[in-house]
Specification:
Layout lengths: L16 H14 L12 H8 L3 H13 L3 E4 L3 E4 L3 H28 L3 H13 L1
Antiparallel strand pairs: 1-2
Length: 128
């Protein structure tokens, strides 16, 4: 992200924006944009870049601090914790299993899809 650049991110109405802010930061940690002990965007930078209220950003960052994904260096800002990537992966794998796969299987049952049908669909998507 460039200084002063406004990013066109569309926030989803189905989830509070502060949670989406936390998710965006997590994505940046997972994809290597932010590495261990690197500083993440400041509240002001994040707020300006995404055109959202600073209080919303503070709340999103607060979630990550509470989960031990970010830590604060007094007077300097927020930094990525040593085991942040692993914590995010564990949290997201749990959500993937308990929410997304559960929803997928419920829908598959409604459609009469077998496990083999689902696996074939997944394999086809993986090829693309």
């Amino acid at each position: 992200m460039m200084n002063g650049e406004v990013m066109n991110i569309t926030f989803d109405d189905k989830q509070p924006i502060f949670q989406q802010v936390a998710y965006l930061i997590e994505d940046d940690i997972l994809n290597g944009t932010f590495r261990v002990d690197e500083q993440v965007l400041s509240v002001a930078q994040f707020s300006q870049t995404f055109q959202i209220n600073p209080a919303t950003v503070v709340k999103g960052i607060g979630l990550l601090v509470n989960e031990g994904i970010l830590y604060k260096k007094r007077g300097l800002g927020m930094y990525v914790a040593t085991d942040a990537k692993q914590k995010i992966q564990v949290k997201r794998k749990d959500r993937f299993y308990n929410e997304l796969l559960s929803d997928l299987l419920n829908e598959a049952d409604k459609l009469g899809l077998t496990t083999d049908n689902i696996m074939d669909m997944i394999k086809q998507l993986r090829k693309e």
